[in-house]
Write a structure and sequence with these properties.
Blueprint: E1 2-10, E2 15-18, E3 21-29, E4 37-43, E5 46-51, E6 57-64, H1 65-76, H2 83-102, E7 111-116, E8 119-124, E9 134-135, H3 147-151, H4 153-165, E10 169-173, E11 179-180, E12 185-186, H5 196-199, H6 221-227, E13 240-245, H7 247-258, E14 265-273, E15 279-286, E16 290-294, H8 296-302, E17 313-318, E18 321-327, E19 335-336, H9 337-345, H10 350-357, E20 362-365
Parallel strand pairs: 1-9, 8-16, 12-19
Antiparallel strand pairs: 1-6, 2-3, 3-4, 5-6, 7-8, 10-11, 10-20, 13-18, 14-15, 15-16, 17-18
The chain binds zinc ion (ZN) (2 copies).
One zinc ion (ZN) binds at residues 126, 129, 134-135, 139-140.
Amino acid sequence: MNVRVGIMTAPHISCEQRPEGVLLHDVRIGIGFHWDRTEDQLFEGTMEIRDNADGTQTAINTLDVEDYLSSVITSEMSATSSLELLKAHAVISRSWLLRPMLNKADAPAKLGWSDTPDRRIVWYERDAHVGFDVCADDHCQRYEGITRRDAHPEAAARVRAAVEATRGMVLVDPTDNDAICDTRFYKSCGGRTELFENAWAPHHYRYLESVECPYCNTKDARVLSQVLNNYDQETQDFYRWTVRYKADELAAIIRDRSGIDFGDILELKPVKRGPSGRIYELEIIGSKHRMVVGKELEIRKWLSRTHLYSSAFDVERDGTDFVLRGKGWGHGVGLCQIGAAVMADKGFSYEQILTHYFPGAELKRII
Ligand SMILES: [Zn+2]
Ligand SMILES: [Zn+2]
């Protein structure tokens, strides 16, 4: 079974055939996030450069599902990851990929949008893509071809072993005719995971219940290096973090990021919070305008030049400054990668890790 991956869209794409694969130049990764950068990447399988109606070009890589998974996991994880962690990741990456390709009936809403002058509630889904199944950036799953794999043959061999050991295996929901689970993941929940419906469409999945995570509160570099690639290790304070803004700086950020002039920001008021502490409706009260914004990703985007680590924060005033004290990194729904790394390090099996973060889900071999 093949998957089509949209690697990049640009005014002009430059690539060349090498003996080991196709080399794409200037691929931009981590778009809009703090690790945003460009690099050259190498791919196996076939590469198609498609001309779009707006004059841009899109590079689409087609390859076998299990090869794709090996690359994705090598990109997401690191050489030192334990085998149980890699197996858990192989299962959720495979489930996440195959669910929309095989479970057509249960596709989630593409994009949520409730936009009035005083309310903007938005969420994003990956099936906004046209012409390919998944993109290569963090929006779907970070995929860097065989670039990293070839640079780290030992890591690649471990990942390949984990993919082989779980070949064709996904998580299914026995209460929903064994439908493939929506296996979301992120870096750190901050102590408790979040409900699906607070980040995306208003649908409750039983296996995406909010669960305690006593695991991701760690600064153990040996464990963190299993989940965070080199550039991610620039970031250390994800379990608890603080962001401080001068009042005029915050007003400028919100104006630039939302396109709305609120005037002076008078108050940031959490309206709705999920069980993990993530705010999914935030009222911004300014001297010229007031508005409720959500869900979590939109809040994170509006309150930072890049993205806040999460929307699980409290707002304090220190003189005229706004101080955001937050926890966790990412949306908090499903598997906590740092928590899973700690569980694997403590000797839990990949089945135990998966049933902790997806309670009630079951493993099943489907392809
Ligand atoms: Zn995508
Ligand atoms: Zn956690």
